[in-house]
């Protein structure tokens, strides 16, 4: 587990007082925490694509491949709720499109695609499923994302750590100044200078960032796929009211 600590800043009163914030001495602390855990779920995003002069035949080809994918995912025990299969999308192909990049000339065929999003919870089966999907002609991967099944619980854990660390950092800073904490004026997942717009008209959801490395879908053997650990980070902004220590 990796933990990133805090940055602390004492702000002058005029900067925030107009926003209904403290009119007495205070310290403004930003706490940050980060936890790394092994990925335990992988989200696969890919398109099925077919091109044919006949639109109906292109559609039939994509649907036939989609049925193969549904059968494969059922065989690999992927739950129906973990599979999203979008509607078909058909676009005409023009005679001069490849040469100029513009849709010019007569229509020479059709490109039919269908997008899939598949969540694989059995990490051990991930590599083999990717290889099997790639073996189905016309499968074009657009992304492979690592994640955590218990992401909400981890976010709650991180939030508690940011609060604890904010308090610790504030106390250390105030000790060198001969001051102490009297109480908490406010806690926010966004910076207090932004709090007015966040409260009175814009989204005020927590900033949580989940990251993972891109995983190659090239000519690797299935045993060589390796998942990057998932990093979940959180920040919290706290205003403490302060007074001279006795």
Tell me about this structure.
With 246 residues, the protein is an alpha+beta fold. It folds into two domains: 7-38 and 150-244, Protein of unknown function (DUF541), domain 1 (Translation Initiation Factor IF3); 41-147, Alpha-Beta Plaits. Helix content is 29%, strand content 37%. It has helices at 13-17, 55-75, 97-100, 123-134, 151-175, 195-199; strands spanning 7-9, 26-37, 41-52, 83-94, 107-120, 139-147, 179-188, 208-211, 230-244. Strands 1, 2, 7, 8 and 9 form a five-stranded antiparallel sheet that branches. It is elongated and about 85 Å long. It starts with 6 loop residues before the first strand and ends with a strand. Residues 1-17 and 202-223 have low confidence and may be disordered.
What are the segments in which pLDDT stays under 50 over at least 5 consecutive residues? 1-17, 202-223
Shape: elongated
Number of domains: 2
Helix % is 25-40%
Fraction in beta strands: 35-45%
Specify the CATH architecture of the largest domain: 2-Layer Sandwich
Superfamily (CATH H level) name of the largest domain: Protein of unknown function (DUF541), domain 1
> How would you classify the helix and strand content by structural class?
alpha+beta
Biggest β-sheet, characterized?
Answer: 5 strands, antiparallel
User: Could you report the average pLDDT, rounded to the nearest whole number?
Assistant: 78
> Ends: how far apart?
38 Å
- Here the CATH topology of the largest domain equals Translation Initiation Factor IF3
The radius of gyration computed from the alpha-carbon positions, rounded to a whole number of angstroms, is 26 Å
């Amino acid at each position: 587990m990796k933990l990133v600590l805090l940055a602390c800043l004492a702000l002058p009163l005029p900067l925030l007082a107009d926003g209904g914030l403290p009119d007495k001495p205070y310290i403004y602390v930003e706490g940050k925490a980060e936890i790394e855990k092994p990925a335990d779920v992988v989200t696969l995003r890919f398109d099925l694509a077919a091109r044919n002069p006949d639109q109906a035949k292109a559609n039939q080809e994509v649907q036939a491949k989609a049925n193969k994918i549904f059968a494969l995912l059922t065989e690999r025990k992927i739950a129906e709720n973990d599979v999203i299969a979008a509607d078909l999308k058909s676009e005409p192909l023009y005679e001069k499109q490849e040469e100029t990049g513009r849709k010019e000339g007569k229509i020479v065929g059709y490109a039919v695609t269908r997008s899939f999003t598949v969540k694989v919870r059995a990490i051990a089966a991930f590599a083999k499923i990717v290889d099997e999907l790639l073996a189905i002609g016309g499968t074009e991967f657009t992304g492979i994302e690592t994640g955590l099944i218990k992401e909400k619980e981890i976010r709650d854990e991180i939030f508690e750590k940011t609060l604890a660390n904010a308090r610790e950092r504030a106390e250390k800073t105030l000790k060198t100044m001969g001051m102490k904490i009297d109480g908490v004026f406010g806690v926010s997942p966004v910076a207090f200078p932004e709090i007015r717009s966040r409260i009175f008209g814009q989204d005020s959801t927590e900033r949580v960032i989940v990251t993972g490395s891109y995983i190659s879908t090239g000519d690797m053997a299935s045993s060589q796929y390796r998942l990057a650990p998932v990093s979940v980070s959180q920040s919290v902004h706290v205003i403490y009211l302060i007074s001279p220590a006795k």
